[in-house]
Design a protein that fits this description.
The structure is a single chain. The chain is globular, with a radius of gyration of 18 Å. By secondary structure, the chain is mainly beta. The protein is built from one helix and ten strands, in the order αββββββββββ. The termini are far apart. The strands form two sheets. The chain has a six-stranded mixed beta sheet with strand order 3-9-8-5-6-10, with no helix packed on it. A four-stranded antiparallel beta sheet has the order 2-1-4-7, with no helix packed on it. Keywords: Carbohydrate metabolism, Cellulose degradation, Copper, Disulfide bond, Hydrolase, Metal-binding, Monooxygenase, Oxidoreductase, Polysaccharide degradation, Secreted, Signal. It catalyses: [(1->4)-beta-D-glucosyl]n+m + reduced acceptor + O2 = 4-dehydro-beta-D-glucosyl-[(1->4)-beta-D-glucosyl]n-1 + [(1->4)-beta-D-glucosyl]m + acceptor + H2O. It is found in: Secreted.
């Protein structure tokens, strides 16, 4: 009993220091529960790779950056090129930073898929738009697209790229919180998808990166003095260009 109480309190303390995680997915209208870090016994059979704690990741070189330390899940969800995948955050509290959505084609079974190597490619992103609002951490409304997730049970919807070759894939949703000057916080989670159809498209190497490896701690779009009024209020989302699939180009989210 005491051990259980201590464990629960430890999870609670970790949760207080952090600010949100993907808690469910909506894929082509069907809801898939995510991993429940506060009650892992209730979420053994989920598509989301189970992560060890709620603590933010603070370095581009941390091994946990790939899937928040998650290495396995018991389930997967079927999708097709063109399918809509929504990640839902039960809680999110910060209005500055980018949203990144990545995929990775597993060479075989999910059980042996660790996401290593330069195989990750972005299928969606959201950064800063001056037309939406302001850049700084102390002003409203926020011009950062991450602000759309603030509050309860907000979602970010992306489209599986057209013509994508079938197979087992990881999908990785990542929030980079920039609300503290020069102190980024990374919040990534991964889920398992089985892409069907008869497509054959795959992004070339110019769209791919390794995780960790796609950013450096000293990069200007990672280490951001968000409360400095003298900096240029523009932002380029980290990583390679977004790949939309066969015959589609990436959107430009930089302002």
């Amino acid at each position: 009993m005491l051990t259980s109480l201590i464990s629960t309190l430890g999870l609670f303390a970790a949760g207080v220091s952090a600010h949100g995680a993907v808690t469910s997915y909506i894929i082509d209208g069907k809801t898939y529960p995510g991993y429940q870090g506060f009650s892992p016994a209730n979420s053994k059979n989920v598509i989301q790779r189970q992560w060890p704690n709620y603590n933010p990741i603070t370095s581009c070189s941390a091994s946990q950056l790939r899937c928040n330390g998650g290495t396995s899940a018991t389930e997967s969800a079927p999708v097709q090129p063109g399918s809509k995948v929504s990640a839902v955050w039960q809680q999110w509290t910060h209005a500055q930073g980018p949203v990144l959505v990545w995929m990775y084609k597993c060479p075989g079974a999910f059980s042996s898929c660790d996401g290593s190597g330069s195989g990750w490619f972005k299928i969606d992103e959201g950064g800063f738009k001056a037309s939406n609002g302001v850049f700084l951490d102390s002003e409203n409304p926020s011009g950062w697209e991450i602000a759309k997730l603030m509050g309860g049970n907000k979602q970010w919807t992306s489209t599986i790229p057209s013509g994508l070759a079938p197979g087992n894939y990881l999908i990785r949703h990542e929030l980079i919180a920039l609300h503290q000057a020069n102190a980024p916080q990374f919040y990534p989670e991964c889920a398992q998808l089985v892409v069907g159809g008869s497509g054959s498209a795959q992004p070339d190497s110019s769209y791919k990166a390794a995780i960790p490896g796609y950013c450096k701690d000293g990069d200007s779009n990672i280490r951001v003095p968000i409360n400095n009024r003298n900096i240029a209020q523009t932002y380029v989302v980290p990583g390679p260009p977004v790949w939309r699939g066969a015959s589609k180009k990436a959107r430009d989210f930089s302002a």
